[in-house]
């Protein structure tokens, strides 16, 4: 499923009694023997149902993102530790053998 790009918890239901939805209400009312008020309530119910699904998907997406961030942080920490260990080993070898990074001895 595609990622949600906005938080559906912040969405506001449309006013289905407004003039812009007059044709939709009229069609629903006429085809289903509803009043326009009932048609508007049906549209609002459909919006609420879709919004509730999106809220659930948003929560899952947020939890997955947090999990991925935690996993990435662990990988980054492991990489940093490996780099530190490698640097420490290199420094030990240099100290023991008197080498510099270019393969020359300290003389």
Which terms summarize this structure?
single chain, 107 residues, 2 helices, rod-shaped
Structure characterization notes:
The chain is mainly alpha-helical and 107 residues long. The chain has one domain (16-97). Helix content is 68%, strand content 0%. The protein has helices at residues 22-32, 36-97. Helix 1 (22-32) crosses helix 2 (36-97). The longest helix has 62 residues, at 36-97. The radius of gyration is 31 Å and the shape is rod-shaped.
Concise structural overview:
The chain is mainly α and 107 residues long. Helices cover 68% and strands 0% of the residues. The protein has one domain.
Helices and strands in order:
Elements: H1 22-32, H2 36-97
Number of strands: 0
Coarse morphology: rod-shaped
Share of helical residues: 55-70%
Stretches where pLDDT falls below 50 for ≥5 residues? none
Largest sheet: none
In terms of DSSP E residues, the strand content is under 5%
How does the helix and strand content classify structurally? mainly alpha
The number of distinct helices, counting runs of at least 4 residues, comes to 2
C-alpha end-to-end distance: 65 Å
Determine the mean pLDDT: 89
Order of helices and strands: HH
Instruction: State Rg.
Output: 31 Å
């Amino acid at each position: 499923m595609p990622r949600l790009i906005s938080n559906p918890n912040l969405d506001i239901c449309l006013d289905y009694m407004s003039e812009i939805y007059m044709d939709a209400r009229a069609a629903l009312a006429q085809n289903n023997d509803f009043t326009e008020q009932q048609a508007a309530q049906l549209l609002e119910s459909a919006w609420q149902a879709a919004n509730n699904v999106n809220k659930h998907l948003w929560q899952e997406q947020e939890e997955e993102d947090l999990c991925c961030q935690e996993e990435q942080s662990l990988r980054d920490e492991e990489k940093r530790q490996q780099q530190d260990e490698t640097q420490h080993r290199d420094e030990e070898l240099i100290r023991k053998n008197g080498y510099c990074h270019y393969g020359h001895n300290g003389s």
